[in-house]
């Protein structure tokens, strides 16, 4: 796994063996940030269900001011910390251990990326309902193309869907 573009372009990231995390494929990450590039500079970015932190680190590489990494898996948290340290990004980031549904409401960001494990369908609805109560500017949800995501949650409305292989990105705005 590598950083696609920006300040840390082509730098390799530590990944985790096994099925504990499902990294966002490089091509899908590139598509996501091609869309976000005009809006990413200077924002606070939240990477929920962060895994190795690749999406949040990509946001930092492309000019985000700060990133929150929410994750409950201990091995993933350690990988995030190692990846941030290898790029000297500790001062621009906050790693938040614990269940995302509990930590999400305590960390405000203009852009939120959520990528719950695909088998935890209820996590999608619960996380989106929490975000809909005090909506950020933009929420992007990565999900299986087979999962039906609602059109709206509280103050958030879906504005776009991008499909790529077995994955989809649903964009929600306040």
CATH topology: Rossmann fold
Q: Compute the number of helices.
A: 5
> Which strands sit side by side, in order, in the main sheet?
3-2-1-4-5-8-7-6
User: What average pLDDT do the residues reach?
Assistant: 93
Distance between the termini: 32 Å
For the biggest sheet, the summary is: 8 strands, mixed
Number of strands: 8
CATH architecture: 3-Layer(aba) Sandwich
Inertia-based shape? globular
Please name the fourth-level CATH homologous superfamily. Answer: Vaccinia Virus protein VP39
Q: In what range is the share of β-strand residues?
A: 25-35%
Helix/sheet category: alpha/beta
Relative helix content: 25-40%
Uncertain residue segments: none
List the topology elements.
Elements: H1 26-40, E1 44-48, H2 54-61, E2 66-71, H3 74-86, E3 93-97, H4 100-103, E4 111-114, H5 121-133, E5 138-144, E6 152-153, E7 156-164, E8 167-173
Parallel strand pairs: 1-2, 1-4, 2-3, 4-5
Antiparallel strand pairs: 5-8, 6-7, 7-8
Short description:
This protein has 174 residues and is α/β, with parallel strands linked by helices. Helix content is 30%, strand content 26%.
Describe the protein's architecture and organization.
- By secondary structure, the chain is of the alpha/beta class.
- It has a single domain (26-173), classed as Rossmann fold.
- It contains 5 helices and 8 strands, in the order H-E-H-E-H-E-H-E-H-E-E-E-E.
- It has an 8-stranded mixed sheet.
- Strand 6 (152-153) and strand 7 (156-164) form a beta hairpin.
- The protein is globular.
- The chain starts with 25 loop residues before the first helix and ends with a strand.
- 39% of the residues are buried.
- The model has no long low-confidence stretch (mean pLDDT 93).
